[in-house]
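Expect sequence, tokenised fold; for instance:
***
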Amino acid sequence: MKTNKDISPLAWGLLALLALAWGGSFLSIRIALDEVGFLTSVAHRVGWAMCLLWGYVWLKGLPFPKESRIWIGFLGMGLLNNVIPFSLMAWGQLTIESGLTSILNAATAIFGVLLAAVFFVDERLTLRKAIGVGLGFLGVATAIGIQHLLAFNLQSLAQIAVIGGTISYALASIWARKRLAGLAPEVAAAGMLTGSTIIMLPAAWIIEGPMTLALKPITWAAIGYYVIIATALAYLLYYKILDLAGSGNLMLVTLLVPPVAIVLGAIFLGEALHPRAYVGFGLLALGLIILDGRAVDALRRGK
């Protein structure tokens, strides 16, 4: 695995682009929710992005998977990595700020480490990881606020829904390792979005009614952003950075997304987060840095 010193200028630039893409997704989703239902917004996201990525796969001449076990894997991945988290977070954004949603979303890595220790014998929970996870949980609890954890209201439900989405993301990484290993990343992403679309289109239709294309220009602009930039392009950037810089460096994007979402929410939506949200993000960021381990190793070498 490469270290921070090994990150090339190209990788840093792509990392910044990915953070901007994902950071902007929270604003664009919130704008789209002013006109379409939260399930319909997800159906648009996965359906159009699926078409774009299969087009990319076709242009690259990558083989089309035909085995039934792979398509079962795509369905499971689509459910865990798109359908559940996208839907829960979009619903949550109807009540809580986009910036707060992005902060809570950063807990994905915390749950990922914890669940990996449960499912894989080679991912044991060391003392360092346990400290990082503990700080991460403390950060999430601080960002939400103890009073909201104790008072079971719509705002607390929205925040719990977002946390549920991060747990689903973490489970998706477990599923991918067990069921989709060896596939080209572009094919895996396109197949996952196909599984998501198979689930989301009928779900959105049944629950929220037939989808219409007669939407306001600003709604289409928001949908276009989170389909093209925050989903299709973001997945390609994700795997490119993974190849250039390794998974450890890729985790840095988790720390870069919330500031982007917070600034955009403040400028375009007039959002003002409670100070505890920033304190919570600081604790969560510290937990992620400890989980990454390189800063801890650097301190040890400096002694």
